[in-house]
């Protein structure tokens, strides 16, 4: 075992630093407050307009329009637009489904199917030993896949977090799919909007709890830079 592979000694300062890094990484990966707003606003606008006038076309186009506006705002502010772009694609699929079937509830169907598929992906990857949360957050923490073989405590934390996300999203799907068949459009839409943020926040909080208690990430980029500098120093020594 090299010094880089040895567990880091957990002092109070180290733990505070690890928690801060974890919070920042989760904020970046999941979009923070603005990302949550961009997730909620299109659906909220859709159900609000449909509740008032039952106009599917106006509701769908308004939701799509505000999604595009959120992307434009991101681009103008030169901020990362990946969360806003993903929102546009989700809304666009919903608009297409609803327009094709003429049923306003189908606006929500692509997002529900995505949620269910994502829940299964979290659980399946955790069972396979390559938890999806680790694949998503590894690059953010500059550890890539080093947690798989060199940091077992961190791998365990990623597995726990993936299970948390999977089970929470499955529970959400278990609520929404029966309502999709039984509830009317306005009731279903308001329930769906209400369930946008709380499950997400719970999953993010549990991820933070698991990772804050895990060993710190191994910065593979710093390792590569150190190795490159070592080789350059050896080359200069040999040349001298």
From TrEMBL:
Domain of life: Bacteria
Coiled-coil features, chain-numbered ranges: none
This protein's UniProt keywords: Membrane, Transmembrane, Transmembrane helix
Membrane-traversing stretches: 56-77, 84-101, 113-141, 162-182, 188-211
Keyword Transmembrane set for record: yes
Protein name (Swiss-Prot/TrEMBL): DUF3159 domain-containing protein
UniProt organism field: Streptomyces cinereospinus
Source species taxonomy: Bacteria, Bacillati, Actinomycetota, Actinomycetes, Kitasatosporales
